Amino acid sequence: MNVLKVILATLLASMVFSPSFFEASSPLQMKIDEAPVGAIVEIDAGEYEETLVISKPITLVGNGEVRIKSCEAEPVIAISGEDVTLKKITVEHCGYEEEDTAIYITGSNHRMEELIIETRRYGVKLDQANGVTIKDSEIIGMKRGNGIDLWQSNQNTFEALRIASVSDGIYLEQSNENLIYKNNLENSRYGMHLMYSNDNVLRDNLSSSNITGTMLMETERTTVHGNAFLANKNSVNAQGLLLYEAYETEVIENEFISNRIGVYIEKAGNNHLESNKIRDNFIGVQMKNASDNKITRNTFVGNVNEAQAIESSKNEVNQNYWDAASKVDVDGNGESEISYTADPYFLTLTTDVPEYQLFFQAPGLILLQNLLKSPPEQLLTDSAPLMEMTMEVEKETSSSLGLWVMSIVMIGASFSLFIIGRKRR
Fold first, then answer.
1. Rounded to whole angstroms, how far apart are CA atoms 117 and 75?
2. Comparing C-alpha atoms, which of 270, 228, 214, 259 is closest to residue 391?
3. Which of 98, 169, 213, 251 has the smallest count of CB within 10 Å of its CB?
4. Least confidently predicted of 202-206, 294-298, 333-337
């Protein structure tokens, strides 16, 4: 027995006092704790299973392929204070708890560059964090948490990010004056989702194959400029851009292509849509309980329904190009003498009875629409439609094919509802 005890003690001592033991305990946190303010801490290539806390101004940079991983409840990397920089690191959080987060940030003026973040829940959380920049990085999730989540965080910049397969790509709540620029947001619920947040700028982003490209809810003075909202149609509630109780929004020079609804405006007012390309959507623009909005100099091409308005009034709609409009320019001013009117009759009818979508563009339904016109206050009328497009539109047969496929799918769904309804009777 004494010999066995000696052997065990010798093995334990060799493990404890070997360099590899210390390296395995928490090598990165030790480096961080020992680094002076302003230091650059390089991490050697390899995989590190630990969590880190950084609360002083230092730069943590990967030298080669560096992966920091944890499945614990706390964040893989928690950042506070000021002026912390992370560069060239892969961060993986493999936990399943609802609030699990790969990177948690509070404080100010932090910078994240060239990161890869893999998470089963949240990617990056900003909690009362200001002046933070995250750029040239990638966030991949499992649709169970947001890619970037802001709470009371202002004047931050998110640039050149790819965010995919999350709940919301970039989510803002009570967060103001943030810049969301040149990001690619795809295959999620909302590409960008802003709630109770004001004076934010969304510029030159691509939001595609989401349920909703972007939602603005109870926001003011948002700028939406130069973005592309593509193929957001994989749900009966899908749309490119949703303005819900949003006010003073500037929607300028964007592309809304192959969405179920290009722009949906509900209970919103004093918004301005100008010089947008709205093409190959099932509905180009739809308004409900919306007033005092301005829609001008947009190009509507190839949409199944160009525009619809229900219980909406006092909206200014003029000088748009509608490919479905009759065009006669007598005085050569570039505007048609024949006004263009979008009647919501079909939309109102199918809202009450979805099975009527089977009869879309049927001669009988068109006749009924002409005979039973909607009240004048429900009509969306452009009194001076343009003769020429305000934006160049490519002639793509594939887009037309996609539009027909979308229509056939919707008709098929309506037919299924019709059959199910008959069986229940």
1. 12
2. 228
3. 98
4. 333-337
For residues 146 and 101, give the distance between their C-alpha atoms in angstroms, rounded to a whole number.
10
Q: What is the pLDDT of residues 96-146, one digit of tens each?
A: 899 999 999 999 999 999 999 999 999 999 999 999 999 999 999 999 999
Rounded Cα distance between 152 and 105, Å, is 12
Task: Extract the tokens encoding 109.
Answer: 């003026």
Q: With beta carbons less than 8 A apart as the criterion, state whether 149 and 139 touch.
A: no
What does the block give as tokens for 382? 């452009």
Taking CA atoms, 102 is separated from 78, 94, 136, 425, in Å, by 9, 9, 17, 52
Q: What's the pLDDT tens digit per position in 255-288?
A: 999 999 999 999 999 999 999 999 999 899 999 9
3-state secondary structure of 140: strand
Contact 336, 384 (CB under 8 A): yes
Amino acid code (one letter) for 382: D
**Which residues face 341 on adjacent strands?**
381
- 251, β-bridge pairs: 224, 273
* pLDDT for the residue numbered 156: 98
Give the span between the Cα atoms of 407 and 401, in whole angstroms.
10
The pLDDT, as a whole number, for residue 11 is 47
Contact 202, 222 (CB under 8 A): yes
Whole-number Å distance between alpha carbons of 118 and 25: 23
331: amino acid identity, one letter: D
Residue where the block lists tokens 């987060």? 101
380 in Cβ contact with 317 (< 8 Å): yes
